[in-house]
Amino acid sequence: MTTSWNNGHVYIPPKHAVDNDEAWQIVRDAGAGLLIISTPEGLASVFVPVVVSEDRRTLTSHVAKANSWWKSVSGDTEVLAIFLVASAYVSPTYYPSRLENPRVVPTWNYVIAEVRGRLTLHEELEWMQNQVRAVTGQFESGRSPEWRVDDLDPQYRDQQLRAIVGMEIEVTSIEGKAKMSQNRPEVDQKSVRDHLAERTLPEQNVANRMKPIS
Q1: Cβ contacts of 194 within 8 Å, gap of 6 or more
Q2: Mean pLDDT, range 74-78, rounded to an integer
Q3: What residue numbers bound the domain in which 81 lies?
Q4: DSSP E strand stretches across the chain
Q5: In a domain, 85, yes or no
C-alpha cells in the first residue's frame, strides 16, 4: 500500500501544497498530533505522541487506559490525525505593498499535515513495551543522559504498561499544507518574515519556515 492525496479533505491551493515527503516531515517535526474519531456521542479527540514506521504505512501511539476515548474504537474505526508545526497571525501592516494598494486584510500563516487511517487497539504487554520503547527512544535521542524504558524495575514497568492502551493507525492518506504568504509579492513575503522573526517564539518558528527572500 502507498499513501496518496485525497481531494476534498483540506483546502490546498497549489501555492500552498507540499509533497508527501514534506508532509511526513511535518508529522515527524510535530512529534505529537490530535487524533479525532466519531463516537455515538459525537466527535472525540486525544492528543498523543506518535511514531512513524520506516515504510510510513503506520503510526503507533498509546493512551491512558483511564481515558475513555479509546473505548469508542472498534475494528473499523476511522481516525483523522492533525499535526501542526507552525502557526502565526499576519497583520496587513506587514505588507509594504499596502501603501500602493490598501485592499489588504489580516490572515494566518501555518504549516500542517493531516493523516487519515484505520485505528486498531493493542493491549498485549510486549507490543506496548515495544511502542513505549520506540516513542521514548525517539524523543530521548541525543539527550545526555538518555532515559530508557529498559532501566525501569520490571515490576513497575509492567504495572505502568497495564495502565495504557496501544494504538496503531494503518495510514490511508496524508496531506500537507504550508500557507506562508506565497500569494503575496516578494516584498511583502520578506516583510512578513522579518516582522515575525522579531516577535514571539511561535512567530519566529513561522519566520524560520518561510522561504528566505533576498
Answers
A1: 207
A2: 87
A3: 14-184
A4: 32-39, 42-49, 51-52, 58-64, 78-90, 107-122, 164-179
A5: yes
Residue 92 lies in a domain: yes
Question: Per the structure, how many domains does the chain have?
Answer: 1
62 in Cβ contact with 132 (< 8 Å): yes
CA distances 89 to 39, 53, 148, 199, Å, are 33, 34, 39, 11
**Does residue 131 lie within any of the structural domains?**
yes
Q: What is the DSSP letter of 174?
A: E
Strand partners, 39: 42
Give 66-90 as a 3 state SS string: CCHHHHHCCCCCEEEEEEEEEEEEE
Q: What is the DSSP letter of 8?
A: T
pTM of the model: 0.91
Q: Is 36 exposed, middle or buried (0-12, 13-18, 19+ CB in 10 A)?
A: middle
Give the pLDDT confidence score for residue 214 in this predicted structure: 61
pLDDT of residue 10: 73
CATH number at residue 77: 2.30.110.10
